[in-house]
What we know:
Blueprint: H1 2-15, H2 20-23, H3 27-39, H4 48-53, H5 70-79, H6 85-109, H7 113-125, H8 127-131, H9 135-154, H10 157-168, H11 175-193, H12 199-219, H13 221-234, H14 260-281, H15 289-304, H16 309-320, H17 323-334, H18 341-360
Amino acid sequence: MPIFYLCYIYSFFLFSYDREKNIQKLLFPLLIAFIIVFSIRSSPDEYMRYLEIAVPENFLDLGYGLFSQWLFNLICQICKFFPNPLTLLYLISYSLIFFLIHKSIQLISDKSYSISFFTIGFYLSHAFLSFYEGIRGSLANILVLFAICIFIKYKRIITTIIYLYLAASIHIQTLPFLFIFATYTLSKEIFKRIKLFKFKQKKVLIVLSLILIFASSITFRSSISKIFINFVFSNASFFAGYDGYLYDKSYVYEINILGFTYLGLLCTNLVILVLSYQPIFSHPNKRHRILFFLVLFGQVLSLAFSNLALVAYRFSSAFLYFQMPLIASLITIENKNKISYKKFILILLASALSFWNIFIQENLKSFAF
Length: 369
């Protein structure tokens, strides 16, 4: 399995250097074969029990509130009408994940298949390996990614909010994006009307703000975790089924921010941010900068909640996926047909991540048919 997986990763990088007309018909056949392999597995599995116990039997019992996660339960209900519902659930979820990734990248890269190949290769090297067992969280995160890419391309606020609601209806971990997007939209309108700073002053303000945010995230991370736990317990009725995690010591532990794993994640984000900084901030569409700040905010979030690993990994995981459109935007700006040193660095980074995840972390060890 490790050799098969590595061959798939490098094939995507290799095809990304071919001409558009030669690879347009290759993407989905390659992905279909990959999806089938991961869908017919018998292990790891955490959703058969979910299908049997957690999914409501009656369509009317789904509920449609922000905390009901009705959309994923609806997909599960549909799967239960067919033989092998677990395999069908994997097929549907993985198909939607890769389809939405491709569509998101096309929105950012002006419908480039070569950039889709390159970006999916990077996704397979790290994010997929880290989260392939949890299809519900991955599908919700990718739907958030698609929503933000639609906003960046077309600035459709209502459409974006609808997709963010649907993402939260798959998994509650994406709910903060609804509030973040609402805050961003509101502050943008306020900032337009109160032009207090000149351009140079804004740059200084942004740098100072980032330094303050990172320093506060590290200094007050213990207090932030306590505030969050108290908030969940005081609103237990809204977090039914999730507050119990906070009693489980296997979830409530502190992330070692000086450990090799966390520093590796930090370095990965920093490399991508450094490589993309100049192209992103010179892009004529200023909304592309959102991608930069989302990756940055994900890192801040994992630092702020590092005393509470469950929350840190759940909420920051969605931001990790924005590495993909950020890389796509970088390659688009730098000239997608050019063999640039930045693409070479990203391939080296992807190689290191894939070897770490496959051979050191052994993320595929439990995989079995």
